[in-house]
Amino acid sequence: MIFPFSPFQGLKNPLTLMSYVTPIMAIATALLSLVLDPWPDFTRTDYFNSSWNIARSFSLMFFGGTLAFFMVLTEYILVSVTSAMTITIAGVVKEAVTILVAVFYFHDEFTWLKGAGLATIMLGVSLFNWYKYQKLQKSKTVVVSPTKYLIQDEFDDEEENSPIRVQ
User: Which pTM was predicted?
Assistant: First the structure.
């Protein structure tokens, strides 16, 4: 039997991929909620006791869901354009910002463990950026990446007349 679409076809389009993955994620979240959330406390909360609170609660859930949707969409596009390592580095930098916000804005205690973590983050991000810079400096050719983007270093005047090599 021939199917009108391949199961891997959705991996090329973020919206199609999300339409495949979202039902599975919703079912898993619902099952975990049924098992782990304190459902008897649901009737004692103020979130659903009046029509105003119900509308406000659903608006907040819709807003959070919309933010999550666009975050996943942006992450997918960013990974497809750059690499998974870029997302990892961005996540590490996010953790550093979280530590700094917690200390300066929420007045959390800055312990030696947070300091060591922050120093490790800064060292790791710096080393990664240094590595990428060194790799870029070594390449004096046009590099065609799998994402169909070109990275071109500045060529000397002599090399401008020579043919460009593609690696």
Answer: 0.50
In angstroms and rounded to an integer, the radius of gyration of the C-alpha atoms of the chain is: 24
Helix (H, G, I), strand (E, B) or coil at 166: strand
Strand locations in 37-164 (E): 143-144, 150-151
**Whole-angstrom distance between the N-terminal and C-terminal Cα of the chain?**
41
The answer to whether 122 touches 146, Cβ cutoff 8 Å, is no
Cβ within 8 Å of residue 110, ≥6 positions away? 103
**Which own/partner pairs from 47-50 qualify as long-range (CB within 8 Å, at least 24 positions apart)?**
none
Strand-pair category, 143-144 with 150-151: antiparallel
Condensed to tens digits (0 to 9), the pLDDT of residues 99-127 reads 888 889 888 888 898 889 889 988 988 88
Q: Report phi then psi at 50, rounded to 5.
A: -145, 165
Give the pair of three-digit tokens for residue 120: 């490790």
Phi and psi, residue 162, nearest 5°: -85, 155
